[in-house]
Amino acid sequence: MTPHQPEPNQPSARPGLPTRAELADLFRLALPVVVVQVGLMAMGVVDSIMVGHLSATALASVAIGNLYFFGLAVFGMGLLMALDPVVAQAVGASDEPAIGRAAQRGLILALGLSLPTGLLLLTARRFLTWIGEPAAVIPDAALFARIMIPGVLPFFAFVVFRQTLQAMGRMRPIVLAIVVSNVLNAVLDWVLIFGHLGAPAMGVPGSAWATTTSRWVMAAMLLGLSWRELGHRLHPVRPEVFEGRPLARMLVLGVPIGLQYALEWGVFGTVLLLMGRLGTVPVAAHQIAINVASLTFMVPLGVSAAATVLVGHAVGRGDPAGARRSAGAALATGVAFMSLTALGFLFLPTAIARVYSEDAAVIALAATLLPIAGAFQIFDGIQVVSIGILRGLADTRAPFVIAVLGFWLVGFPVSLVLGFRTPLGPAGLWWGLVVGLVVVAILLLLRTRARFRRRITRVVIDGRQPLAIS
Predict the structure, then answer these.
(1) Ordered DSSP codes for 293-353
(2) Measured between alpha carbons, how far is residue 110 from residues 43, 83, 123, 156, 370 in Å?
(3) Exposed, middle or buried, 417 (CB in 10 Å: 0-12/13-18/19+)?
(4) pTM of the full structure
């Protein structure tokens, strides 16, 4: 897919409304990105559904073990998102050498992130015991985290390949790799969790081995399917990719994204850990509600990724009006979808909960949390699409600052008060998340508007100029 390219002397159509060609570009890119995002989320959904039919304790163990993995890996995943603006703007500027340098530097960063992340996964039992998680959950949750260690490197490598291809508009290999790895994960879950086809019934550890194996297949398959696009960009290794100044500039872009990801995941993860203090049933119910909310979130997240690419392309080719129109189309699409999903959360909570569990207490509590998730759907859509737009502009610092303010200085204290100082309990913890998302969405929308009122320029990674980010 090659985005619509205006003629060099073509006037900027309508300054505020996207053209038909630009809307077509958004949907052509957003739809496969959404498939990829849903596919990534589907692994966790299938894991949760399958172990949920073992017991509430098994579901809680997988929830906490998976949370611990992502709590450690999410910073690295966010850091590697620095590839988004760098590659997208290079594509828009037709700067082929910059695309190759960015991809190779991404792999260097992925290798550097894998070792500390793997070592920290070994501390799961000690950490979960220290924070007071239920004793029945800790052994399997810690084992789940340890089994995920071999999958760290392919997890980060997949992010590098995906972000590079995505910024180039090459989505088919990513979609194929996601589909195959999801089918493999589901089959391995069925075999290893329940002991089919002569395999031992491993329960929770079987789910972890299924995910780890699927991540290796996913990364290897993506590289193989996209070798035509990536091979000449990854090989031979360019000596300049090891230079300190450009790597530092990549870090300047990526570290705020990593911190913003960690803060957002952190607040939702901390709420899950706090649920553990209220009992196993609240943890299981929370996992159902957050799993479903995360699944619907994949759609605006996909739109956000498409916005990053299209805005980045427009910036690279020197078309600020086109960047504004792509941003407006993305916001409208994300908000419209989340408005529809909010209705499902409000009117079908019990039916949704029953898909995940047969435990009456878990279903009842999840059915009270899902309508609250419906209340924040629209704001969640606004905030994630706004982040994608800002990332296309190479504005990565403001979302980090806004995440600190909205999630941790406003939303989290509200969660603590409502969750432990009022009768609301688990629902109170969730209402704090709603407040945080509202604040973050409003501030990010204001930041996006302000950035488009300034001069928009391409980010500089190589060369002696200062890093062009404002």
Answers:
(1) HHHHHHHHHHHHHHHHHHHHHHHHTT-HHHHHHHHHHHHHHHHHHHHHHHHHHHH-HHHHH
(2) 22, 12, 21, 5, 36
(3) middle
(4) 0.81
- Mean per-residue pLDDT pooled into runs of 10, the chain (470 residues): 43 57 81 82 80 83 85 91 92 90 94 94 91 84 94 95 92 93 93 90 91 95 95 89 88 92 83 78 83 85 92 91 90 91 89 84 88 89 95 93 94 92 88 93 95 86 55
Q: Which residues of 17-44 are buried (b: 16+ CB within 10 A; e: fewer)?
A: ebbeebbebbebbbbbbbbbbbbbbbbb
In whole angstroms, how large is the CA radius of gyration of the chain? 22
Peptide bond into 236 cis (omega under 30): yes
Closest C-alpha among 73, 47, 90, 114 to residue 458: 90
Q: One-letter amino acid identity for 148?
A: M
Residue 102 contacts residue 159 (beta carbons within 8 Å): no
Q: How far is residue 18 CA from its own chain's centroid? A: 26
Distance between CA atoms of residues 461 and 131, nearest Å: 41
Nearest to 204 by CA among 363, 40, 353, 57: 57
> With the CA atoms of 449, 453, 456 and 459 taken in that order, what torsion angle do they form, in degrees rounded to the nearest 10?
-50
Token pair belonging to 440: 């973050």
For residue 452, the model assigns a pLDDT of 92
Taken in order 301, 378, 446, 29, is the CA torsion positive or negative?
A: positive
Q: Residue 266: what pLDDT?
A: 81
- Name the residue ranges covered by the structural domains of the chain: 20-451
For 55, the 3-state DSSP assignment is coil
Alpha-carbon span 127 to 381, nearest angstrom: 33
Closest among 74, 4, 78, 1 to 32, alpha carbons compared: 1
DSSP secondary structure letter of residue 462? S
pLDDT value at position 463?
A: 63
Residue with tokens 């999410």: 74
Average pLDDT, the chain: 87
CA 413 to the chain's CA centroid: 24
Instruction: Give the dihedral of Cα atoms 436, 438, 443, 444; nearest 10 deg.
Output: 100
Q: At what angle do helices 56-80 and 138-147 cross, to 10 degrees?
A: 40
Asked whether the beta carbons of 136 and 279 are under 8 A apart, the reply is: no
Tokens of 356: 């995940």
* Res 1: pLDDT: 43
